[in-house]
Amino acid sequence: MKRLHQIAGLCVFVLSCGAAASAAAGQAGPVKAALDKDAVCTSACHGASWRTPLLSIYQTRHGNKADSRTPGCQDCHGASVDHRTDPGKTPDVVFGANSKHISTADVRSAACLKCHESSVLPRANWTGSQHQTRGLACTTCHNLHAPDQKVLSKATQAEVCFTCHKTQRAQTRRISTHPLAVTSLASAAKMACSDCHNPHGSPAPKMLVKNSVNETCYTCHAEKRGPFLWEHAPVVDDCTNCHTPHGSTNAPLLKARAPWLCQECHSGDHGAQINSGANLAGGNVTTVNGTLQPGAATPRAQAAARACLNCHVLIHGSNHPAGAKFQR
Ligand code: HEC
Ligand code: HEC
Ligand code: HEC
Ligand code: HEC
Ligand code: HEC
Ligand code: HEC
Ligand code: HEC
Ligand code: HEC
Ligand code: HEC
Question: How many domains does the chain divide into?
């Protein structure tokens, strides 16, 4: 019983914290002024009894009224003078995806960019980015009244991206993949799409976080950067010559298995004649009822097991004086 009282007391405390108008009472100067400005909306209609929990915005970083850069209702939704006198009139900026009065994407984003384009946590490459030009707005991914944003957590971010990027969703479900969150295995999320991409746009191709594919990969796989005494040209050129970043049926994240992977480029070399599974084994192979007989020659090293990699082990480059062919 005592415990119940404590819980009830806590609830009242939390609720009154959320209610801007009443919280304004004991506050000093600028904080009070900011909350009073919000009260134009919160004490009129959009208070604790509104159909959605609007006041939870005070529990987010947009609720930190002690920081003078923090937006109030009117910074995002506009002063909405007409709407304040006649609630039937549309506010200046409507974000809600379910509203038939939803503002255009550029109007919605402009409300954010006045702070976030160049001053607060800048997102300077948004305008002209693939997402902006294809009609996304900031609030396509960010929902701002909720205390938790899916898109800001490694465990749930990919879900947001996957609502549109179905190809990448399918790829990350393959046997070999980066440890991204898959819905069933959210706890395994060691990284997120945003470790490689900047969804706000970037000067690099494919909105990569660094200037090139390789620079992006080196942020984690630093040992592949070299410098190597003997470099393998396609590695220096672009990791995606051989790897696919999102997922593959060939471990480790390879576009194809050796020897076929290598033969895409090395067609004139000693491994080139091995093109099909039929000559996986060398010499005169005899079979009875489809089974290899004892005495059959050992499979060709160029095709069996790790194929070309049986001998060319240091495929990303070698520092051995005699490593020109990446064998040591
Ligand atoms: C009046 C300025 C202002 C406006 C307008 C504004 N923000 Fe912010 N925003 C801030 C400040 C200040 C912070 C906190 C920065 C800090 O903590 O360093 C912030 C933080 C954020 C964060 C980080 C939140 C977190 O929980 O980590 C996101 C995301 C964000 N804003 C998105 C938006 C979006 C989307 C819009 C438009 C709907 C918007 N902001 C409008 C000033 C603004
Ligand atoms: C395609 C989805 C998407 C869109 C659209 C988007 N964001 Fe983000 N935003 C993210 C993701 C993912 C993160 C977390 C990773 C990061 O910081 O890049 C993030 C992070 C942020 C942060 C920093 C949060 C922090 O704590 O550092 C701010 C600020 C922000 N976004 C503002 C904006 C603004 C402003 C716009 C519109 C101009 C916008 N976002 C559009 C996905 C998006
Ligand atoms: C940082 C920008 C920002 C600020 C500040 C902000 N809002 Fe919002 N508001 C949004 C966005 C974005 C949505 C769309 C829903 C969401 O993302 O949570 C929204 C949705 C709404 C809705 C529609 C909810 C519904 O039931 O459909 C109302 C009403 C609203 N805001 C009122 C307010 C009031 C009142 C304040 C001040 C206490 C405020 N907003 C402060 C960005 C903001
Ligand atoms: C509302 C749908 C939508 C959401 C959500 C979304 N995107 Fe996109 N994204 C697009 C569209 C549309 C394009 C334009 C290219 C295309 O046609 O695929 C695009 C393009 C991209 C590109 C490729 C750019 C290029 O040069 O081809 C990357 C990378 C990307 N998005 C990453 C992300 C990430 C990461 C997230 C989640 C944080 C995300 N997207 C969320 C719709 C979306
Ligand atoms: C390990 C780094 C890495 C991670 C993590 C990653 N990507 Fe990518 N992504 C890339 C690279 C590199 C490219 C460009 C080369 C390519 O398409 O293979 C790319 C390309 C893309 C493209 C454009 C594809 C096209 O055909 O043009 C989209 C869309 C995309 N990624 C979305 C995502 C989404 C969504 C996530 C999270 C589930 C994600 N990526 C995670 C590295 C990454
Ligand atoms: C944010 C860090 C990060 C970035 C950036 C990154 N990776 Fe990874 N990569 C990882 C982690 C973590 C693993 C998993 C290692 C493990 O499971 O032991 C991994 C594993 C791999 C593997 C081995 C997969 C396997 O099944 O063993 C390959 C290949 C790979 N990454 C290639 C790339 C390429 C190519 C890029 C650039 C497009 C890249 N990575 C960018 C973190 C990263
Ligand atoms: C010429 C094809 C090729 C290119 C280009 C390539 N790789 Fe690889 N990578 C491979 C092969 C083959 C394996 C498997 C090696 C094995 O099984 O011994 C591998 C394995 C890996 C692994 C997991 C095993 C390990 O060695 O750590 C990582 C991580 C990796 N590559 C990262 C990269 C990065 C980063 C780049 C770009 C700088 C890159 N690769 C470019 C062929 C390539
Ligand atoms: C995207 C094309 C490409 C792929 C895939 C590729 N290579 Fe290469 N490789 C090259 C190029 C280009 C050179 C440099 C040739 C030169 O300098 O004459 C090279 C050089 C080599 C060399 C040294 C050749 C010499 O004459 O010094 C060896 C050995 C080699 N590759 C083995 C492999 C193996 C094994 C694989 C598969 C795991 C592979 N390569 C995959 C393009 C590729
Ligand atoms: C049994 C070990 C072995 C296997 C398996 C093997 N190689 Fe080699 N590879 C060598 C040797 C030895 C050389 C010659 C080294 C030298 O001349 O210094 C060589 C040289 C090369 C060269 C350089 C061209 C030249 O003539 O010097 C290329 C390219 C090459 N191999 C590609 C491949 C490819 C592709 C595969 C798989 C289809 C493969 N190798 C499988 C041992 C092997």
Answer: 1
